[in-house]
């Protein structure tokens, strides 16, 4: 009986030591840094376009994000096709395209969420994440775009304005509506960010 007690005591001591070591590792600065919340630029929640389900942008931590304000009735609306192609081509390497419908420019996004979602999917086969309609400029600017504007010093001038965010949450650049998704400079910037 004494022998069992000694063995149990020894095992208990080893388990406790291991547990204390694990707790120390978890509370260490290195672990805290690794488990740290997502970058501030992604620390926002928006409702998904298709069903209004709240989405935390932190789920895209560690990815390269191309943020685009979109509209269904714009001369640039056909850029949806190029954006979807870029997403399909590079998503496995870590690119995510984030679409933010906005009625800020020319009132070219008048529809409700269902109408916008149906148009995007049925017309352009859009599968990249899209969020509920919001403002990307002015006094009602959504919090993500407010940070993008602050980081770049440039506000969206029209629909399909683009911002590129690297894997660490740094805003790399802003691109005008005239910059198509297959633009050589934009593609080079995306590929560079994906390689880092």
What is the helix/strand order?
HHEEEHEHHEEH
The tally of structural domains comes to 2
Number of helices: 6
What would CATH call the architecture of the largest domain? 3-Layer(aba) Sandwich
Radius of gyration using CA atoms only: 23 Å
The CATH homologous superfamily name of the largest domain equals Glutaredoxin
CATH C-level of the largest domain: Alpha Beta
Unreliable segments of 5+ consecutive residues: 30-35
Total strands: 6
**Helix proportion:** 25-40%
Overall mean pLDDT stands at 87
N-to-C CA distance: 61 Å
Tell the overall outline. globular
Task: Tell me the CATH topology of the largest domain.
Answer: Glutaredoxin
- Tell me the β content: 5-15%
Largest sheet: 4 strands, mixed
Protein name: Glutathione peroxidase
GO molecular function: peroxidase activity
InterPro entries: Glutathione_peroxidase, Thioredoxin-like_sf
Family: Belongs to the glutathione peroxidase family.
Write a short abstract of this structure:
The chain is α+β, with helices and mostly antiparallel strands.
List keywords for this structure.
Glutaredoxin, 196 residues, four-stranded mixed beta sheet, alpha+beta, 2 domains, 6 strands, Thioredoxin-like_sf, two-stranded antiparallel ribbon
């Amino acid at each position: 009986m004494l022998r069992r007690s000694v063995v149990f005591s020894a095992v208990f001591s080893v388990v406790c030591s291991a547990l204390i070591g694990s707790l120390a590792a978890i509370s260490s600065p290195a672990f805290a840094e690794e488990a740290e919340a997502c970058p501030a630029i992604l620390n926002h929640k928006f409702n998904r376009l298709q069903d209004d389900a709240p989405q935390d942008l932190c789920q895209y931590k560690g990815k390269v994000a191309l943020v685009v304000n979109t509209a269904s009735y714009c001369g640039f609306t056909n850029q949806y096709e190029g954006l979807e192609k870029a997403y399909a081509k590079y998503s496995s390497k870590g690119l995510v395209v984030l679409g933010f419908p906005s009625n800020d420019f020319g009132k070219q996004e008048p529809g409700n969420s269902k109408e916008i979602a149906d148009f995007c999917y049925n017309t352009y086969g859009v599968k990249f994440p899209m969020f509920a309609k919001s403002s990307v400029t002015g006094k009602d600017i959504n919090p993500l775009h407010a940070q993008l504007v602050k980081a770049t010093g440039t506000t969206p001038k029209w629909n399909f304005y683009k911002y590129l965010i690297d894997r660490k949450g740094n805003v790399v650049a802003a691109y005008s509506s005239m910059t198509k998704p297959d633009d050589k400079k934009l593609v080079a910037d995306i590929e560079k960010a994906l390689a880092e």
